[in-house]
Design goal:
The complex is a heterodimer of chains A (about 110) and B (about 140).
Chain A: E1 2-8, E2 11-17, H1 24-38, E3 43-50, H2 56-71, E4 75-79, H3 83-91, E5 99-101, H4 104-109
Chain B: E1 14-22, H1 25-41, H2 46-67, E2 75-82, E3 88-93, H3 120-127, E4 130-134, E5 139-144
Classes of the chains: A alpha/beta (about 110), B alpha+beta (about 140).
Chain lengths: ~110, ~140
Protein backbone atom coordinates (compact mmCIF):
# COMPACT_ATOMS: atom_id res chain seq x y z
CA UNK A 1 0.00 0.00 0.00
CA UNK A 2 1.16 3.53 -0.78
CA UNK A 3 0.80 5.91 2.15
CA UNK A 4 1.35 9.61 1.61
CA UNK A 5 1.14 12.02 4.54
CA UNK A 6 1.16 15.78 4.19
CA UNK A 7 -0.03 18.69 6.26
CA UNK A 8 -2.53 21.23 5.03
CA UNK A 9 -3.98 24.06 7.14
CA UNK A 10 -3.04 22.36 10.40
CA UNK A 11 -4.75 19.16 9.26
CA UNK A 12 -2.86 15.97 8.50
CA UNK A 13 -3.95 14.57 5.16
CA UNK A 14 -3.23 10.88 4.58
CA UNK A 15 -3.64 9.51 1.07
CA UNK A 16 -3.85 5.73 0.76
CA UNK A 17 -3.64 3.58 -2.33
CA UNK A 18 -4.29 -0.19 -2.40
CA UNK A 19 -6.06 -2.70 -0.17
CA UNK A 20 -6.02 -1.92 3.56
CA UNK A 21 -5.60 -5.36 5.01
CA UNK A 22 -3.63 -7.17 7.71
CA UNK A 23 0.10 -7.09 7.12
CA UNK A 24 2.31 -4.36 5.69
CA UNK A 25 -0.65 -2.12 4.75
CA UNK A 26 -2.19 -1.96 8.21
CA UNK A 27 1.24 -1.90 9.87
CA UNK A 28 2.29 1.00 7.64
CA UNK A 29 -0.85 3.01 8.35
CA UNK A 30 -0.54 2.32 12.08
CA UNK A 31 3.01 3.65 12.02
CA UNK A 32 1.99 6.72 10.04
CA UNK A 33 -0.88 7.44 12.41
CA UNK A 34 1.29 7.00 15.48
CA UNK A 35 3.81 9.47 14.06
CA UNK A 36 1.09 12.01 13.29
CA UNK A 37 -0.50 11.69 16.71
CA UNK A 38 2.93 11.62 18.32
CA UNK A 39 3.48 15.11 16.94
CA UNK A 40 0.29 16.26 18.62
CA UNK A 41 -1.80 16.38 15.44
CA UNK A 42 -5.27 15.05 16.14
CA UNK A 43 -7.07 16.50 13.13
CA UNK A 44 -6.71 13.91 10.40
CA UNK A 45 -8.22 13.38 6.96
CA UNK A 46 -7.82 10.00 5.28
CA UNK A 47 -8.49 9.79 1.56
CA UNK A 48 -9.83 6.31 0.72
CA UNK A 49 -10.66 6.91 -2.94
CA UNK A 50 -8.04 4.38 -4.06
CA UNK A 51 -8.51 1.87 -1.25
CA UNK A 52 -10.07 -1.12 -2.95
CA UNK A 53 -10.94 -3.00 0.23
CA UNK A 54 -10.69 -2.74 4.00
CA UNK A 55 -10.52 -5.79 6.22
CA UNK A 56 -11.38 -6.02 9.91
CA UNK A 57 -7.85 -5.16 11.01
CA UNK A 58 -7.98 -2.00 8.91
CA UNK A 59 -11.37 -1.13 10.39
CA UNK A 60 -10.05 -1.78 13.88
CA UNK A 61 -7.16 0.57 13.25
CA UNK A 62 -9.41 3.35 11.94
CA UNK A 63 -11.88 3.21 14.84
CA UNK A 64 -9.17 2.93 17.48
CA UNK A 65 -7.45 6.06 16.19
CA UNK A 66 -10.80 7.78 15.74
CA UNK A 67 -11.41 7.26 19.46
CA UNK A 68 -7.88 8.50 20.29
CA UNK A 69 -8.24 11.68 18.26
CA UNK A 70 -11.71 12.42 19.59
CA UNK A 71 -10.37 12.26 23.14
CA UNK A 72 -8.05 15.11 22.14
CA UNK A 73 -10.87 17.14 20.53
CA UNK A 74 -9.78 16.03 17.08
CA UNK A 75 -11.20 13.51 14.63
CA UNK A 76 -10.53 11.32 11.63
CA UNK A 77 -12.57 12.26 8.59
CA UNK A 78 -12.82 10.11 5.48
CA UNK A 79 -12.78 11.19 1.85
CA UNK A 80 -14.37 9.28 -1.00
CA UNK A 81 -14.42 5.76 0.44
CA UNK A 82 -14.90 3.26 -2.38
CA UNK A 83 -18.16 1.35 -2.81
CA UNK A 84 -16.71 -1.75 -1.18
CA UNK A 85 -15.10 0.18 1.66
CA UNK A 86 -18.46 1.78 2.45
CA UNK A 87 -20.18 -1.61 2.33
CA UNK A 88 -17.68 -3.10 4.75
CA UNK A 89 -17.77 -0.20 7.22
CA UNK A 90 -21.57 -0.35 7.11
CA UNK A 91 -21.69 -4.11 7.64
CA UNK A 92 -19.86 -3.83 10.96
CA UNK A 93 -21.80 -0.76 12.03
CA UNK A 94 -19.03 1.83 12.10
CA UNK A 95 -19.77 3.86 8.96
CA UNK A 96 -21.79 6.38 10.94
CA UNK A 97 -18.93 6.97 13.36
CA UNK A 98 -17.08 8.84 10.62
CA UNK A 99 -17.79 12.07 8.80
CA UNK A 100 -17.42 11.48 5.07
CA UNK A 101 -16.57 14.07 2.41
CA UNK A 102 -16.48 14.26 -1.35
CA UNK A 103 -12.99 15.77 -1.54
CA UNK A 104 -9.94 16.66 0.52
CA UNK A 105 -10.69 20.39 0.53
CA UNK A 106 -14.12 19.95 2.07
CA UNK A 107 -12.78 17.55 4.70
CA UNK A 108 -9.92 19.88 5.66
CA UNK A 109 -12.22 22.91 5.72
CA UNK A 110 -14.62 21.09 8.06
CA UNK A 111 -12.03 21.32 10.83
CA UNK A 112 -12.07 25.13 10.68
CA UNK B 1 -15.31 -34.85 -8.40
CA UNK B 2 -17.62 -34.56 -5.45
CA UNK B 3 -16.14 -34.66 -1.97
CA UNK B 4 -17.02 -33.53 1.51
CA UNK B 5 -17.53 -30.02 0.14
CA UNK B 6 -20.79 -31.25 -1.25
CA UNK B 7 -22.36 -30.66 2.17
CA UNK B 8 -25.89 -29.36 2.26
CA UNK B 9 -27.05 -31.59 -0.55
CA UNK B 10 -24.79 -30.03 -3.18
CA UNK B 11 -22.57 -32.15 -5.35
CA UNK B 12 -20.36 -31.76 -8.37
CA UNK B 13 -17.79 -29.54 -6.73
CA UNK B 14 -14.34 -29.58 -8.27
CA UNK B 15 -11.16 -28.69 -6.46
CA UNK B 16 -9.73 -25.43 -7.81
CA UNK B 17 -7.11 -24.67 -5.18
CA UNK B 18 -5.40 -26.55 -2.37
CA UNK B 19 -2.55 -24.68 -0.67
CA UNK B 20 -0.65 -25.17 2.56
CA UNK B 21 1.51 -22.23 3.53
CA UNK B 22 3.38 -20.68 6.47
CA UNK B 23 1.20 -18.73 8.86
CA UNK B 24 2.08 -15.15 7.98
CA UNK B 25 0.63 -12.14 6.18
CA UNK B 26 2.66 -12.83 3.03
CA UNK B 27 0.92 -16.18 2.69
CA UNK B 28 -2.45 -14.51 3.14
CA UNK B 29 -1.64 -12.18 0.25
CA UNK B 30 -0.47 -15.12 -1.88
CA UNK B 31 -3.59 -17.18 -1.21
CA UNK B 32 -6.06 -14.31 -1.65
CA UNK B 33 -4.27 -13.33 -4.86
CA UNK B 34 -4.56 -16.86 -6.21
CA UNK B 35 -8.23 -17.04 -5.25
CA UNK B 36 -8.95 -13.67 -6.88
CA UNK B 37 -7.45 -14.97 -10.12
CA UNK B 38 -9.60 -18.09 -9.99
CA UNK B 39 -12.78 -16.10 -9.30
CA UNK B 40 -12.01 -13.75 -12.19
CA UNK B 41 -11.39 -16.72 -14.46
CA UNK B 42 -14.78 -18.10 -13.42
CA UNK B 43 -16.27 -14.72 -14.42
CA UNK B 44 -18.10 -14.29 -11.14
CA UNK B 45 -19.75 -10.88 -10.67
CA UNK B 46 -17.58 -8.21 -9.07
CA UNK B 47 -19.79 -8.01 -5.96
CA UNK B 48 -19.58 -11.74 -5.38
CA UNK B 49 -15.80 -11.73 -5.89
CA UNK B 50 -15.43 -8.90 -3.37
CA UNK B 51 -17.49 -10.71 -0.75
CA UNK B 52 -15.57 -13.97 -1.16
CA UNK B 53 -12.21 -12.17 -1.18
CA UNK B 54 -12.93 -10.34 2.07
CA UNK B 55 -14.34 -13.44 3.78
CA UNK B 56 -11.24 -15.44 2.81
CA UNK B 57 -9.01 -12.61 4.03
CA UNK B 58 -10.76 -12.68 7.41
CA UNK B 59 -10.65 -16.46 7.71
CA UNK B 60 -6.95 -16.59 6.86
CA UNK B 61 -6.18 -13.72 9.25
CA UNK B 62 -7.98 -15.56 12.05
CA UNK B 63 -6.03 -18.72 11.26
CA UNK B 64 -2.69 -16.87 11.38
CA UNK B 65 -3.38 -14.70 14.42
CA UNK B 66 -5.50 -16.99 16.59
CA UNK B 67 -4.91 -20.48 15.21
CA UNK B 68 -1.13 -20.13 14.90
CA UNK B 69 -0.39 -17.27 17.33
CA UNK B 70 1.42 -15.53 14.47
CA UNK B 71 4.04 -18.31 14.41
CA UNK B 72 5.14 -18.66 10.79
CA UNK B 73 6.68 -22.07 11.49
CA UNK B 74 3.09 -23.30 11.66
CA UNK B 75 1.04 -24.04 8.57
CA UNK B 76 -2.39 -22.95 7.39
CA UNK B 77 -4.30 -24.76 4.67
CA UNK B 78 -6.80 -23.29 2.26
CA UNK B 79 -8.95 -25.17 -0.24
CA UNK B 80 -11.37 -23.79 -2.78
CA UNK B 81 -13.90 -25.87 -4.68
CA UNK B 82 -16.42 -24.72 -7.23
CA UNK B 83 -19.14 -26.09 -9.43
CA UNK B 84 -20.51 -25.22 -12.84
CA UNK B 85 -23.24 -23.01 -11.37
CA UNK B 86 -20.59 -20.66 -9.95
CA UNK B 87 -21.11 -21.86 -6.40
CA UNK B 88 -17.97 -21.69 -4.31
CA UNK B 89 -16.91 -23.41 -1.10
CA UNK B 90 -13.73 -22.51 0.71
CA UNK B 91 -12.15 -24.09 3.76
CA UNK B 92 -9.38 -22.67 5.94
CA UNK B 93 -7.71 -24.94 8.48
CA UNK B 94 -5.17 -24.12 11.18
CA UNK B 95 -3.36 -26.32 13.71
CA UNK B 96 -4.67 -24.42 16.72
CA UNK B 97 -7.00 -25.58 19.47
CA UNK B 98 -9.98 -23.91 17.84
CA UNK B 99 -12.49 -21.64 19.51
CA UNK B 100 -16.18 -21.35 20.29
CA UNK B 101 -17.71 -19.09 17.64
CA UNK B 102 -20.99 -18.90 19.55
CA UNK B 103 -19.37 -16.89 22.35
CA UNK B 104 -17.97 -14.15 20.12
CA UNK B 105 -19.71 -10.90 21.10
CA UNK B 106 -21.62 -8.85 18.54
CA UNK B 107 -19.17 -6.18 17.32
CA UNK B 108 -22.08 -3.84 16.56
CA UNK B 109 -23.03 -3.52 20.22
CA UNK B 110 -22.36 -0.01 21.49
CA UNK B 111 -19.45 -0.96 23.74
CA UNK B 112 -17.68 -2.77 20.91
CA UNK B 113 -17.93 -0.14 18.19
CA UNK B 114 -14.57 1.44 18.97
CA UNK B 115 -12.82 -1.88 19.60
CA UNK B 116 -9.84 -2.71 17.40
CA UNK B 117 -10.66 -6.41 16.95
CA UNK B 118 -13.49 -8.93 17.00
CA UNK B 119 -15.14 -8.23 13.64
CA UNK B 120 -13.68 -10.99 11.46
CA UNK B 121 -16.11 -13.84 12.11
CA UNK B 122 -19.04 -11.43 12.09
CA UNK B 123 -17.97 -10.17 8.66
CA UNK B 124 -17.58 -13.70 7.32
CA UNK B 125 -21.09 -14.57 8.42
CA UNK B 126 -22.46 -11.46 6.77
CA UNK B 127 -20.57 -11.96 3.51
CA UNK B 128 -21.06 -15.68 2.91
CA UNK B 129 -24.27 -17.67 2.44
CA UNK B 130 -23.36 -20.54 4.75
CA UNK B 131 -20.60 -20.91 7.33
CA UNK B 132 -19.63 -23.97 9.34
CA UNK B 133 -16.96 -24.42 11.97
CA UNK B 134 -15.43 -27.85 12.36
CA UNK B 135 -12.60 -29.44 14.35
CA UNK B 136 -13.60 -27.41 17.36
CA UNK B 137 -13.31 -24.18 15.38
CA UNK B 138 -9.89 -24.90 13.86
CA UNK B 139 -11.51 -25.28 10.44
CA UNK B 140 -13.99 -22.97 8.80
CA UNK B 141 -16.00 -23.87 5.70
CA UNK B 142 -17.73 -21.08 3.82
CA UNK B 143 -20.21 -21.37 0.96
CA UNK B 144 -21.16 -18.73 -1.58
CA UNK B 145 -24.01 -19.56 -3.91
Amino acid sequence: MDINVRKRSEVQLIQLRGPLRMGPAVDGLRQAMEEVIGHGDYRIVINLAEVTMIDSSGIGLLVRFLASTKKQSGSIKLVQPSKFAVQTLKLVGVLNLFEIFEDDDAAVASFS
Amino acid sequence: MADEFGAGGSSGFTELLNLSMPANSESIATITGAISEILERLELPEQKRFEIDLAVQEALANAVVHGCDGDSSKTIRCRLNGDQQGRIVISVTDPGPGFRPEVIPDPKRAEGLYGDHGRGVYLIRQLMDEVQFERGGAEIKMWKY
